[in-house]
Specification:
Mean pLDDT: 83
Low-confidence stretches: 252-258
Shape: extended
Order of helices and strands: HHHEEEHHEEEEHHEEEEHHHHEEEE
Strand order of the largest sheet: 1-2-13-14-15
Oligomer: single chain
Number of helices: 11
Structural class: alpha+beta
Distance between the termini: 87 Å
Number of strands: 15
Largest sheet: 5 strands, antiparallel
Number of domains: 3
Helix content: 40-55%
Strand content: 15-25%
Radius of gyration: 34 Å
């Protein structure tokens, strides 16, 4: 009987200990859950606060850098730098990745040869005398290492379409990069919205030429043109401008003001018509600003233009890269790549556009064109076609894109400004912030 009671007491003690242990475990789980939740919320709050601070610093740096870039742009004097021995940048867009890498390897090999001639001729000769295989292996490794640092120079020296090398500096904790691109080296998207009968057909063919070069299928091109035609109904792209006389009403001057008494007995000033003249420059500026907003709005399907035509970790090739979205009206024959040249020259001759583009590329490799008259004299066989589209061509770029990127911590801000430059006079078209 006693042993039975002892066993019952022992069982009850173990049960109580088990209950206590279970309750303790539940409490620990609850406490750990609360601790994890609290720490996660604190971390998330800290991350949000850190992001807000980083974003504010990046935004401030981006705004300051844009002001600096706009001020410095007045002193920028872009000049064409061409090397007859360097490959032309015109056809890089159409190269596959193996072709592009092969071109880089060729340039790296040529650079290695030049470096050996200048600095390492004796060293290479001695190495070959001792071990020819070692010399060959060293040359191959040098070429492979050099390929990664080789870039195809654009018309201004940096890669197309940059006018100068990217400028990098720091503002506080933010790292800032400023890039300036030549907008006249791109195909103006506004040309696809021209509705004038005498130009509509040629600009349509030119846009199709551009799209075919970028690898779009006929059905895709047809769909793009239909969408752009709908946009043109909202506002067609105008090429020719004339000074306009606009009539508006304004109150007379205080000295000449005439008053009249209404039926209610109040005296109101008389409004008289006033005629003002809107100059061609003012109309172009208004159109530039309007289409800058239009081309960066949801009315334009930018996704299809941004679709990569070459998938590569080293290149970003797409139609968007070669489209002018700031209402530019001219293509620079000294800085435009082949497909942009051909699309522009169809305004002069659809059949001869490829031949004229090839002649321009061959000529500018040696020396840039000073003006369009120079092009007509040098390419005299196609002078009539060049003259026909002369109003759409230029040899000096006046439209540029200023892109400012600021990174602070995990925050990144981008601002893009379209500007026109006439000497030292800078005129802002619009600024888009991302």
């Amino acid at each position: 009987m006693c042993s039975r009671l002892c066993r019952q007491d022992g069982d009850s003690v173990r049960e109580r200990r088990g209950v206590i242990l279970l309750v303790t475990l539940v409490i620990l789980v609850i406490l750990s859950t609360l601790g994890y939740t609290l720490s996660a919320q604190v971390a998330a709050r800290r991350h949000r606060d850190r992001f807000i601070v980083d974003y504010a610093q990046a935004q401030y740096a981006c705004t300051s850098a844009m002001k600096y870039a706009m001020t410095s742009l007045a002193d920028l004097q872009p000049s064409i730098v061409r090397d007859p021995n360097a490959p032309d940048f015109s056809d890089v867009f159409a190269m596959t990745e193996p072709q592009y890498q092969e071109l880089l390897a060729q340039m790296a090999a040529e650079r290695a040869v030049d470096d050996r001639r200048l600095f390492g001729a004796e060293t290479t000769k001695d190495r070959r005398a001792t071990d020819p295989n070692d010399a060959n292996d060293a040359d191959e490794s040098f070429v492979a290492a050099s390929t990664a640092s080789v870039t195809i120079p654009g018309p201004y020296g940096p890669r197309w379409p940059l006018v100068i090398e990217p400028v990098e500096f720091e503002i506080g904790s933010a790292k800032v990069t400023i890039e300036i691109e030549d907008e006249n080296a791109k195909y103006p998207l506004g040309w696809a919205l021209i509705q004038e009968e005498k130009l509509k057909e040629e600009t349509g063919v030119g846009f199709v030429t551009f799209c075919e070069w970028m690898g779009y299928h006929p059905n895709e091109i047809r769909g793009i043109r239909e969408e752009l035609a709908e946009v043109a109904k909202v506002r067609p792209f105008q090429v020719e401008f004339k000074a306009l006389s606009v009539t508006s009403t304004a109150p007379t001057s205080l000295r000449e003001r005439v008053t009249r008494t209404s039926t209610a007995g109040t005296r109101t000033p008389v409004q008289r018509p006033m005629r003002t003249t809107v100059t061609v420059t003012e109309q172009i500026d208004q159109q530039n600003a309007a289409f800058a907003r239009l081309f960066h709005s949801s009315l334009i399907d930018r996704e299809i233009f941004a679709r990569p035509s070459v998938v590569s970790g080293t290149r970003n090739e797409s139609a968007m890269k070669y489209l002018g979205l700031w209402a530019t009206r001219h293509v620079n024959i000294n800085t435009a790549p082949r497909h942009v040249l051909e699309a522009a020259l169809t305004l002069g001759s659809v059949a001869d556009a490829p031949k004229i583009a090839e002649a321009i590329i061959q000529r500018r490799q040696v020396k840039p064109f000073s003006d369009i008259e120079d092009a007509k004299k040098d390419i005299f066989r196609h002078a009539a076609a060049i003259e026909k589209c002369q109003a759409f061509l230029t040899t000096t770029s006046t439209a540029f894109t200023v892109r400012v990127t600021a990174v602070s911590g995990v925050a990144r801000t981008v601002a893009v400004a379209g500007v026109t430059k006439d000497g030292r006079k800078i005129k802002r078209i619009a600024v888009i912030s991302d």
